[in-house]
Amino acid sequence: RTIGDRIGEAKASGNLGNTLKILGQFDEAVVCCQRHLDISQEQGDKVGEARALYNIGNVYHAKGKHLSWNMAQDPGYLSQEAKETLQKASEYYERNLSLVKELGDRAAQGRAYGNLGNTQYLLGNFSEAIAFHKERLAIAKEFGDKAAERRAYSNLGNAHIFLGRFDISAEYYKKTLQLSRQLKDQAVEAQACYSLGNTYTLLQDYERAIEYHLKHLVIAQELGDR
């Protein structure tokens, strides 16, 4: 501020916002991120503006998750405050998405789609969540981003469960399992086995359910995860 560096002030405000978000000080975080947004718009800095919109979305997303954790409910059963907060997150992600499309930034589009999928899932809008996660998946494949691809499969599996499409969920969870093995991520592999066990229970294929729950158990024991 002293040297009149507006872009520098905008970036610093954004960094403050992100740090306050991690500290759980959501309302103060929004104020800082909004300042980042205002200055970026004033300076005609489109990249900064997109980043600020994304960061504000993240703050509302984190606040919404925090509020919904207190409820300990299934997705879609939220307090009014949690619902409004997640809807705000969604709106900012949408604004970010249209701007990064304009900028032609595919990687940023991928992140926006993933977060839109997650917010819609928490809001209980499972069909919308699926549409967003499919977009996320396509971009992850485009970039050869295996970790993002794995997350997308997992999220697609979760959303289909709530629509009662257990067979489709099982297919997505199998892809999650395959990728977690490729990535040598045992914790995620265990999680995929657990999801498959539950899905096959829902499909009333108990033999297979047992098989996957045993695999989950073995990895949990290997990792010493009580």
Automatic annotation (TrEMBL):
<keyword id="KW-0677">Repeat</keyword>
<keyword id="KW-1003">Cell membrane</keyword>
<dbReference type="InterPro" id="IPR011990">
    <property type="entry name" value="TPR-like_helical_dom_sf"/>
</dbReference>
<keyword id="KW-0963">Cytoplasm</keyword>
<comment type="similarity">
    <text>Belongs to the GPSM family.</text>
</comment>
<dbReference type="InterPro" id="IPR019734">
    <property type="entry name" value="TPR_rpt"/>
</dbReference>
<dbReference type="GO" id="GO:0005938">
    <property type="term" value="C:cell cortex"/>
</dbReference>
<dbReference type="Pfam" id="PF13424">
    <property type="entry name" value="TPR_12"/>
</dbReference>
<feature type="repeat" description="TPR">
    <location>
        <begin position="150"/>
        <end position="183"/>
    </location>
</feature>
<dbReference type="GO" id="GO:0001965">
    <property type="term" value="F:G-protein alpha-subunit binding"/>
</dbReference>
<dbReference type="GO" id="GO:0000132">
    <property type="term" value="P:establishment of mitotic spindle orientation"/>
</dbReference>
<dbReference type="InterPro" id="IPR052386">
    <property type="entry name" value="GPSM"/>
</dbReference>
<keyword id="KW-0802">TPR repeat</keyword>
<dbReference type="GO" id="GO:0005092">
    <property type="term" value="F:GDP-dissociation inhibitor activity"/>
</dbReference>
<dbReference type="GO" id="GO:0005886">
    <property type="term" value="C:plasma membrane"/>
</dbReference>
<protein>
    <submittedName>
        <fullName>GPSM1 protein</fullName>
    </submittedName>
</protein>
<keyword id="KW-0597">Phosphoprotein</keyword>
<keyword id="KW-0472">Membrane</keyword>
